[in-house]
Amino acid sequence: MTNDAAVIAIKISTTVKKRRKILRLSQEAMADKAGIDRTYASQIERGIANPSLFVLCSIAKALDISFMQLVNGDIQCTFGDKAPTV
Fold first, then answer.
1. DSSP reduced 3-state for 60
2. In whole numbers, what is the pLDDT of the chain averaged over residues?
3. What Å distances lie between residue 49 and 1, 44, 74, 81, CA to CA?
4. How far apart (Å, rounded) are the C-alpha atoms in residues 13 and 42?
5. Higher pLDDT, 86 or 13
6. Are 41 and 31 in contact (CB under 8 A)?
7. Distance (Å, rounded) from C-alpha 3 to C-alpha 66?
8. Which residues, 6 or more positions from 18, have their beta carbon under 8 angstroms from its beta carbon?
9. How far are the Cα atoms of 12, 23, 40, 46 from residue 15, in angstroms, in the given order?
10. Is the pTM of this model over 0.90?
11. Of 84, 52, 62, 54, nearest in space to 15 by CA
12. Which of 33, 47, 68, 84 could lock 13 by a disulfide, CB 3.0 to 4.6 Å apart?
């Protein structure tokens, strides 16, 4: 993984974990909502997986944030408990 890719992976993994905890979802519940396996969700949260755009969009939707919020780590810009999704 290039340095830029590693930075992005860490930002995404941090955002996923923070948002999941804000929503009080277990990894399993978040994974179910996103249509992915819990072990894969764990790998994403640890920054060791390389998820596709499709998977990232599914995770963003499961976490009620937009794709851009997921990638940028900007989870403060939500509207109540629900944020616009992609």
1. helix
2. 88
3. 11, 5, 21, 27
4. 9
5. 13
6. yes
7. 24
8. 75
9. 5, 12, 16, 11
10. no
11. 62
12. 47
Question: 24 is written with which tokens?
Answer: 């009080």
Of the candidates 73, 53, 74, 77, which has an alpha carbon nearest to the alpha carbon of residue 10? Answer: 73
Query: Rounded to an integer, what distance in angstroms lies between the CA atom of residue 75 and that of residue 35?
Result: 21
Q: Distance between alpha carbon 72 and the CA centroid of its chain, in Å? A: 11
Residue 84 binned pLDDT confidence (cut-offs 50, 70, 90): very low
Does residue 16 contact residue 63 with C-beta atoms inside 8 Å? Answer: yes
CA 67-72-74 angle, 5° bins: 90
Of 20, 23, 26, nearest in space to 80 by CA: 23
How buried is residue 50: exposed, middle or buried, by Cβ count under 10 Å (0-12/13-18/19+)? Answer: exposed
